[in-house]
Amino acid sequence: MMDQFITLLPELNKSFLETLIMVAIGLGVALVAGLPLGLLLFVTDRGLFLENKVVKSVTGIIVNLVRSVPFIILLVFLFPFTNFLVGSTTGPVAASVALSVAAIPFYARIVESSARDIDRGVIEAAIACGASPWLIIKDIIFPEIKPGLISGLTITAISLIGYSAMAGAIGGGGIGDLAIRYGYYRYDNFVMFTTVIILIVMVQVIQYAGDFLAKYVKKG
């Protein structure tokens, strides 16, 4: 078994790195695009300082449309766009396109949900004092939802690990690709069990780190 593991180690290292690349890119895009999108969904809601029914409805519909498509179908659907953007439909970078598209609305809804927990009275008091929308977002909403944002990133990262495994089934690379090529097609149970254990460890580490950071920020 040890000899088999040593033989498999180069492939494991390569697959692990590819998974990290996919998750990191997807998570980065989710943070950059999903955070403002989630805040937009919140501040344009009824009764808030940037209330806009049209913007809220259109944005909500687009977010729900993307979230309603199963990831494996979204991955294939985006092949032409992926090929145009990165010049390929295979590999971790190409798979990151679909991962990013899936992660943006997912994280946006988490951001919106976190913002809904803020006491409306605090926002109303800031408005009464003449605070600008940007000031309210920067100094009231954002600090209040920091722990929720970190917890949301943790959930998103774990979801992206699962999505990356699915992407591996159709040429995305990563641990999912290794499990399919060796564990499924070659009926190698050792590889299958090894990849499952690696995924479990990755999820546990990310969850623990995310929970620790969220608690630290909340105490601060």
TrEMBL record:
<feature type="transmembrane region" description="Helical">
    <location>
        <begin position="85"/>
        <end position="108"/>
    </location>
</feature>
<dbReference type="InterPro" id="IPR051322">
    <property type="entry name" value="AA_ABC_Transporter_Permease"/>
</dbReference>
<protein>
    <submittedName>
        <fullName>Methionine ABC transporter permease</fullName>
    </submittedName>
</protein>
<keyword id="KW-0472">Membrane</keyword>
<keyword id="KW-0813">Transport</keyword>
<dbReference type="Pfam" id="PF00528">
    <property type="entry name" value="BPD_transp_1"/>
</dbReference>
<dbReference type="InterPro" id="IPR000515">
    <property type="entry name" value="MetI-like"/>
</dbReference>
<dbReference type="InterPro" id="IPR035906">
    <property type="entry name" value="MetI-like_sf"/>
</dbReference>
<feature type="transmembrane region" description="Helical">
    <location>
        <begin position="54"/>
        <end position="79"/>
    </location>
</feature>
<feature type="domain" description="ABC transmembrane type-1">
    <location>
        <begin position="16"/>
        <end position="209"/>
    </location>
</feature>
<keyword id="KW-1003">Cell membrane</keyword>
<keyword id="KW-1133">Transmembrane helix</keyword>
<comment type="similarity">
    <text>Belongs to the binding-protein-dependent transport system permease family.</text>
</comment>
<feature type="transmembrane region" description="Helical">
    <location>
        <begin position="20"/>
        <end position="42"/>
    </location>
</feature>
<keyword id="KW-0812">Transmembrane</keyword>
<feature type="transmembrane region" description="Helical">
    <location>
        <begin position="190"/>
        <end position="210"/>
    </location>
</feature>
<feature type="transmembrane region" description="Helical">
    <location>
        <begin position="149"/>
        <end position="170"/>
    </location>
</feature>
